[in-house]
Amino acid sequence: MTHVIIDTDTAQDDCVAILVGLLDPRADLLAITMVAGNVGFEQQVANAQLTLNVAGMLGRVPVHAGCRRPMLREWVSATDVHGDGSGGLSMQSPDAVVDDEHGVDALLRITAERPGEVSIVAIGPLTNIATAVVKDRGFAARVKSLYVMGGSNNGRGNITASAEYNFYVDPEAAQIVMEAGFTDLHLITWDPLTLRDATIARADFDRLGAIGTPLARFFHTMCTATLDYDESVGIDGSTHPDSLTIAALLHPELVLADAQYRVDVETASALTRGYSAMAWDKFGLAPNATVVEAIDSGAFFALLEDVLRTPTQPDVPITGL
Question: What is the value of pTM for the model shown?
Answer without folding.
Answer: 0.97
